Structures are given as structure tokens and as C-alpha cells.
Amino acid sequence: MRLNETPVLRVKNLIVRYGDGCPACQENLDKNRCALCGAIWAANDISLDVYPGETLGIVGESGSGKTTLMRSLYFDFTPTSGVATLRDHKDGQENIWGASAAERRMIRNIHMGMVYQNPALGLRMDYSAAANIAEKILAAGGRNAGQMTGRARELLEAVEIMTSRMGETPKNFSGGMRQRVQISKALANSPALLLLDEVTTGLDLSVQARVLDLIRKIKARHGISILLVSHDLAVVRMLADRTIVMLDGKIVESGLTDQILEDPRHAYTQQLVHSLI
Amino acid sequence: MVAIMEILNIVDLGKDFYLHTPGLEIKSCHGINLTLETGEFIGIVGASGAGKSTILKCVNRSYLPTRGEILYDSAAFGKIDLTAASEREILYLRRHEIGYVSQFLNAMPRTTAKEHVMNALILRGADARSAEAEAKETLSHFRLPENLWELYPVTFSGGEKLRLNLAHAMVKKPRLLMLDEPTASLDDKTKLLVRDMLQRLKGPDTGMIGIFHDIAFMEGLCDKVLNISEGVFVS
Ligand SMILES: Nc1ncnc2c1ncn2[C@@H]1O[C@H](COP(=O)(O)OP(=O)(O)OP(=O)(O)O)[C@@H](O)[C@H]1O
Ligand SMILES: Nc1ncnc2c1ncn2[C@@H]1O[C@H](COP(=O)(O)OP(=O)(O)O)[C@@H](O)[C@H]1O
Ligand SMILES: [Mg+2]
Ligand SMILES: [Mg+2]
Ligand SMILES: [Zn+2]
Questions:
Q1: Structural domains for chain A
Q2: Closest residue of B to A3, CA-based?
């Protein structure tokens, strides 16, 4: 037998640069900034594969480019260069970053779900929780209002948001509840790929535990592929099959999660692992 | 008659670590050669720090070997060098063929003992109902008291954790089972129980490697003993 697996997502040579850059940027980088021209290389040649049903963890210090990668994938902006293909879009033959605006909307709404580090980016704070979910279903072509309400209820129940609060706006919700609404919205159209950017950051420990358990259940139940950004190694240890370590816009190390934790090779990864309490 | 075949062949395995902060190279095991056949149980002994755990962790690929080859005869892939196999292949093998048991509990937080064993089966595609039945059977086989099945194992005693670890590894019926000092910190009575269980795990389809510090424990259990401080097999 051969493991003939087609990645759900494949990213090749992603570059996100702010500023024009100069011919000598790469030789003059101070962290992610060119000392000569001041350009910022937020993502500097990122390549990765995400396989069916796996969770790929991404760790790295603040400013290393994790959110940049996630938001590029979700079409929040178009990267400077790079190729990303999805198994479920044109058989993985076309760069999604070259797709038309209409195609991007469909890809983002049907094949992906995103949970933003900042809930204000992922939710409309002045729409009800149910309406936030209905919006995502509508965007994927759903039209039946009754079905949409039923689906919203089912999704919110799955993340333990009481039906009685479906009509309230996320403005009234706690941080943990907002993340759970984001998660149910992300799952609304049963995407193959879930993008999670620091879902538990800033939450109380017990609330974190609940959100992590929820993600574990989603993994088990939906066989979904997850790209999981966290600067908390404990989160990655619990959820990720494989892990990538980012520093200054680059991938410095990748491997099986337990190998990254037990036998880290890069100086930065060693520092990260040794600072685990 | 069951054909005996080589399931694992470690050739000149070596592992060094480089720690950047002090700028220090640590040499762990080196020049390790070992051949394991199906049905065989090899014991590894050696001084503390000699590199025994390192060998098993290299086979499990929790450590990336520095030198050498680890040729494993996989049911799914045929002969495969574990030092060079892809991460996806290693994940597959851990789910289906290779078991690793240490004295430490490696369960998810907020997961009951029963769920922990069930998860090993669900990960390889079993449905929840059959996983539950099989998990219960395995937990009884390893004599984990039934009143503990629905509890989180963080509060378990050393011996209970070990029996859970064994159940978690064995429910997959691995072809290759590795045990890293599973009996450390157990009392003599529990040790005997574990020894008895290991004895019964020996079977024509499984190859086993275990690290024990207690030579008497291995007597009659292990077919061969490798003393790694000298890099040779002792009988
Ligand atoms: N619009 C922008 N203009 C200029 N620089 C930007 C812009 N957006 C991001 N950056 C820079 O790109 C780099 C990567 O930012 P990013 O948000 O991806 O980091 P991150 O890894 O998600 O960090 P954190 O862990 O703090 O969330 C940072 O240096 C950031 O200041
Ligand atoms: N992850 C690691 N990082 C650095 N050094 C390690 C690591 N694991 C083991 N070592 C070193 O390798 C040597 C062998 O360790 P180990 O295999 O655990 O020994 P044993 O199991 O024989 O007691 C020791 O010097 C130990 O400190
Ligand atoms: Mg970020
Ligand atoms: Mg050891
Ligand atoms: Zn420059």
C-alpha cells in the first residue's frame, strides 16, 4: 500500500510584503523588516500541506506571520505572490489567489470556515447570533429561511449556546461565547477546511478548556482538516497531529507534534519548548 | 506453523542532540544494531543515561535519528525505513501498527479512561459502539477496576495508569510494541501482575521491545537481552 493522499490545502511560496522592497531585502532583514528600504516581509516564502482529517498546528512568536497566512487563505487580502490550491476547487489545479472575486466568495463560503483571533473581524456585533450564521449560509447560496433558522439552532446548540440566546447580538456575549459563535458560523456550510487563529487566546482557563474540548469533538465528528494557529504549545500538543514553527515570516521547523516538543532542533523552537511551564 | 520473520532491523543507529543555548552537543546512543523477529521479546538494559529510551523514541519517531536506519516490516507499506518515512506514514503506523508505552500517562485532559481507549480505535476508523465494546473488554483484560472506567485518569495510581497505557496500546493489536520502563515505581505485587500480562501479550504476530532495570523481571519473559552500555547482547 502507498499513502496516496491528496492534500486538502497546498500552499507554495507564499509571500506577503508591505512596502515595495529592494533587491537586497533578503540579505538585510532585521527580523521581518528590511533595514535598507523598510519593507516588511510578513510572510516570507511559506509552503505547507494540510491533509484530509488532520490538524496542522502553527506556532510562532507575535509578529511571525501566522495571522497573515490565515487571512491570506481566507482572501482578506491578496498576497504579494504565492500559490494556494484546494483539493475541492478545480481539482487542485488552480491558484485560488488568482480566482475571480465571485469564485473567491464561493471558495471562502463553501470550502472554508474561519475563526478570527479578533471576534470583531469574524462576527457582525450588531446582528443576532442566528443572523450571523444565516449570513454565512446565504453567502453559500442558501435561500430557505426556515431551513436556515433550523440549521442555525442546530449549530449553536452544538457549541452549547442556548436557543434562548440565539436572537441576542454577540455584543452581549462573553469572549468564550463569541468564539463559540464564530466556530458555529465557520462550520455552517460543512467546509473541508477550518482555519482557527488563536481561538483560545485571552480566555479564562475554564473557558479555554471548553473551547478546546469543542474543537476536539469537531475533529472527531466531522473528519475536518484544521489549520490551528496558537502561541500556546499546550494547545498545539493537545490538538495538532503535525506542527510548523514560524519565526519572522518564515517556517524554521516542522514535524510530528510530539517530535517538535521532545526533540526541537531550531534555537527558537528549543527556547519555546523550554519556556513551557 | 507460523513463519517467523524479521519485523524490525535497526542498523548502526545514533542520536546526538544539539542544545543551542549552552551551545552543547549531547551524544546519546550510538552504533546500535538490533534485529527483532515476530513473536520475540527483546529486553534492553544499560546504565541510566546510556540511551535506552532514545532508541525507542527514535523508532517511534518522537526523536529524529542522527545516523543509521530503522527498517520496519509494515503490514501496510512493506519494508519501510522509519528514519526516512513521511510524517503521514508515521502517523498511520502509530494508529495501526506501532504501540509505545511508558510509565507516564499520555491521555488527553478531561477524557475518561474508557474514552481514552475508545479513541485509539476511533482514530483508526471504528464506530463508537464497537469501540466502546472493545475498550471495555480490553480494560477488563488488563484488570482496570470497572469503577475507574468513567473517571479522568489524572488521579489514578501508577499501576492503574500503567494498565490504562497498556490497554490503550494493546487495543490496537500492534505488530510492534515498545515498553519504556513500564514497571518503574510499581510495587512488587503490581509488577508481577504486569509481568503476567506481558507474558500473555507475547504472540506470534507481535514483536516486543522493553526497557527494564530489573534483570530478574526479564528472566523467562525476554528472549534476548541487549546491554547497550556495551553495545552487545548478553544472554
Ligand atoms: N497592514 C499591514 N501593514 C504593515 N505591516 C503589517 C500589516 N499587517 C501585518 N503587518 C506586519 O506583519 C507581521 C506579521 O503580522 P501577523 O499579524 O501575521 O502576526 P502574527 O504571527 O499573527 O502575530 P500575533 O501572534 O501577535 O497574532 C508583523 O510584523 C505585522 O506588524
Ligand atoms: N530530548 C533530549 N534533549 C537533549 N538530550 C537528551 C534528550 N533525550 C535524551 N537526552 C540525553 O541522551 C542521553 C540518553 O538519554 P536516555 O535515552 O533517556 O537514557 P536512558 O533511557 O538510557 O536512561 C542522556 O545524556 C540524556 O540526557
Ligand atoms: Mg495573529
Ligand atoms: Mg529512559
Ligand atoms: Zn529592502
A1: 9-276 (3.40.50.300)
A2: B89
- What is the C-alpha to C-alpha distance for residues B140 and B96, in angstroms, rounded to an integer? 22
Per residue in A118-166, pLDDT (tens digit) is 999 999 999 999 999 999 999 998 888 888 999 999 999 999 999 999 9
What pLDDT, in 10s, does the model give residues B97-145? 999 998 888 888 899 999 999 999 999 889 999 999 999 999 999 999 9
- Distance from the alpha carbon of residue B25 to the mean position of ligand 2, in angstroms: 12
Q: CA nearest B66: which of B74, B77, B58?
A: B58
Q: Are B8 and B36 in contact (CB under 8 A)?
A: yes
pTM: 0.94
Cell reading at B131: 469501540
The rounded Cα A98 to chain-centroid distance in angstroms is 20
Among residues B65, B119, B120, B59, which one has the least CA distance to residue B90?
B59
For the stretch B200-235, pLDDT in tens is 888 888 999 999 988 888 999 999 999 988 655 665
Would you kindly state where each structural domain of chain B is located, as residue ranges?
Answer: 6-234
Is A51 in Cβ contact with B88 (below 8 Å)? Answer: yes
Find out whether A17 and A42 touch, Cβ atoms under 8 Å: yes
Q: Whose CA is nearest to atom 6 of ligand 2?
A: B17
Is B6-234 CATH 3.40.570.10?
no
3-state SS assignment for residue A11: strand
Whether residue B89 and residue A3 make contact (CB cut-off 8 A), yes or no, is yes
